[in-house]
């Protein structure tokens, strides 16, 4: 019967082309607006590392001076180098990594290519297993190489393609800011969005091509990027030196389970107590330990205007559905005579209700097809904006399926009232008026 009702719906569309076109257009406009904003919201609010985001935690300590202290206020977003290296040395977490961003110049040593600048990451050995980075060739460096200040590097697949035409480059050198570093690993395509492990270099538009041991980066004085907050007396030439009171290091830990977080936070509080007693810290223990999604939420990685646009788009979809309800009512009630004849010939009210709902769903399917085109046009318009996340606005397979599902569900909801009114038609009254 469903197939028969579907054929009836197509015939009905042919008899009421203008009314059908208005309904399809109303649903398509609502679906197009909703899916455009929903796709952007999904890109920005998705979990960048879902397999372990609940076990990855970002560490914050309060090493500032007593001046301006307010109990309970948020500590600095980053750690000093001294604290980061001490936490790394103590090794209280199964995995932990200190890091900062950088900008480096690559000398390709090929006549056809000129030196060019790339994004860099200066970090410690656990970075790669902690964040599940995929390797095309080789591996990350070890903690032994960290301690030995080895002149090694891991490069991205795109940089490997550019310098070595995609060949296995393990053991070869890459020149970073004039320094020869031996390549120990080549990452496969990997660019988490947002760049959750360092939100200070641009969460969406920053790409890192070379990874260097943190200790090596300081020995070679490689250029760093990102925020740096200094406090106390900082009359030195090198603000990144070990004991300078400047916060500029991101510090992440991976715990065995999310339930281990309170114990690790207690360790951080105890560490702060020790530093306070030693005279390094001037404030009482004030630590934070946030997992990936909590950190993204705290930093408002999803812009407020994107959330507002999402609510406005779904409000617009609701208005379109209200209009569709009115059009469906007009369409079904104009066929009261036809419905009365069907009822007189033995069709039940549920048969009429099902027929009308299938017709509404067919309108939704057509609206979904047109709405998909509107959504693609909307996403193209988003990609023309200067926002740093604009290039990420693409419709993937799941959102494609959701477009049709949303269109059909929305049209079925819009069709419930008109279908209910249609099934209430009294056969005797309709037959007398014919």
Overview of this protein structure:
The radius of gyration is 31 Å and the shape is elongated. Mean pLDDT is 85; it is low at 428-433. The longest helix is centred in the C-terminal third of the chain and has 35 residues, at 349-383. The chain has helices at residues 2-15, 17-45, 81-90, 127-130, 143-147, 157-164, 214-219, 261-278, 292-298, 304-333, 336-344, 349-383, 397-423, 427-433, and strands at residues 56-60, 79-80, 95-107, 116-123, 135-138, 152-155, 173-176, 179-187, 208-213, 224-225, 229-230, 246-254, 288-291. It starts with a helix and ends with a helix. The chain has a 6-stranded mixed beta barrel. It has 434 residues and is an alpha+beta fold. The protein folds into 2 domains: 2-47 and 303-433, no CATH class; 62-286, no CATH class. Helix 2 (17-45) packs antiparallel against helix 10 (304-333), helix 10 (304-333) packs parallel to helix 13 and helix 11 (336-344) crosses helix 14. It is built from 14 helices and 13 strands.
